[in-house]
Design brief:
- There is one protein chain.
- The protein is α/β, with parallel strands linked by helices and 324 residues long.
- The protein folds into two domains: 202 residues, NAD(P)-binding Rossmann-like Domain (Rossmann fold, 3-Layer(aba) Sandwich), CATH 3.40.50.720; 91 residues, UDP-galactose 4-epimerase, domain 1 (Alpha-Beta Complex), CATH 3.90.25.10.
- Strand 5, helix 6 and strand 6 form a beta-alpha-beta unit.
- The N and C termini lie far apart (45 Å).
């Protein structure tokens, strides 16, 4: 039976990935934080996963975990995943989103040395490593020059993948652009929008407060991006891959479509701009060129931007209607 280790298994991507690997017959191990309040819910929801409690702030223990599990496939999805939170906690972000990856890769290198085989490692990298890109769309050759603590931590991790790949570790980096689903926490702007829109449509709210409506992002469907990571792990040669739809939309596009799905056309009167939700530095446009992933991984997105918004709004409306 093949073995997989997923860090961040309790998150949006982690649960989709775990479900897929379990269905494929993998023995799935998952790393969760002892302080994660949702971990017990995840334990109950996924009794077939072998859980390990651990802290990304202790990279030496990550080395030991990887050596003990000795997985065939290793997916690092963990870390502080909010750019906004990274401004509040820059040091912690550097440790758990950046330095921890060195521990994971070192563990994979030890397995390769001790067992003569390298785990197939996939690092969930981010478009935020490009910071303020000079060109659009961005691809694997775009300059890495982050403008946030989150982007800087991801950039360190991204470079470490290349370092360990040169040591013989089968390590790939999937440079993931924004990807959403109904499992996205409400701390993320997309789910904040759809949950607020559902509340307004059902009379449980009056206004939606947001920061920059003009920021452009390339939004995809989370299960598609999980599929890309699996394909990268199983590709014969480890490499870096941009995973994106190739089309960008503004935050206001997302808001407009969400309100329209809920039956509200006059969305501007329901939105207020609040400076508290603006980032100190916010890149104007992220849009990715996934030609390499299409060519080498035979990967492509399967869900349109509008359908993603519709699915999320429908989910939040159903959640409210079910409680009435």
């Amino acid at each position: 039976m093949p073995v997989a280790l997923i860090t961040g298994v309790s998150g949006q991507d982690g649960t989709f990935l775990a479900e897929r690997l379990l269905a494929e017959g993998f023995e799935v191990h998952g790393l969760v934080r002892p302080s994660d309040p949702s971990r017990h819910d995840v334990f109950r929801a996924y009794p077939d996963i072998v859980f390990h409690e651990g802290d990304l702030a202790e990279p030496s223990r990550l080395v030991d975990l990887v050596r003990d599990v000795a997985p065939d496939e290793l997916y690092n999805l963990a870390g502080i995943s909010s750019v906004a939170q990274s401004w509040d906690e820059p040091v912690a972000t550097g440790i758990v989103t950046g330095v921890a990856v060195a521990g994971i890769l070192e563990g994979a290198a030890r397995v390769a040395e001790e067992q003569g085989r390298s785990p197939r490692v996939v690092q969930a990298s981010s478009a935020e490593i490009f910071g303020w890109p000079a060109t659009a769309p961005q691809d694997e050759t775009t300059a890495v020059r982050p403008v946030s603590p989150y982007g800087a931590a991801k950039a360190y991790a991204h470079h470490m993948v290349s370092v360990y790949r040169s040591r013989g570790v089968h390590a790939s980096a999937c440079i993931l652009y924004n990807h959403e689903s109904t499992r996205r926490p409400r701390t993320f702007v997309t789910r904040k929008i759809t949950s607020a829109v559902a509340g307004i449509a059902r009379g449980d709210g009056t206004m939606l407060a947001l920061g920059n409506l003009d920021a452009r992002r390339d939004w995809g469907w989370a299960p598609d991006y999980v599929d890309a990571m699996v394909r990268a792990a199983r590709h014969e040669r480890a490499d870096d891959f941009v995973i994106a739809t190739g089309t960008s939309h503004t935050v206001s596009d997302f808001v407009r479509i969400a309100f329209a799905r809920a039956g509200i056309e006059d969305w501007r009167s329901r939105v207020e701009i609040d400076a508290r939700f603006s980032r100190p530095v916010d890149s104007p446009e992220f849009v990715g060129d996934a030609s390499k992933a299409r060519r080498l991984l035979c990967w492509g997105p399967s869900v349109t931007f509008e359908e993603i918004v519709h699915r999320m709004v429908d989910h939040d409306l159903a959640g409210l209607d079910g409680g009435r």
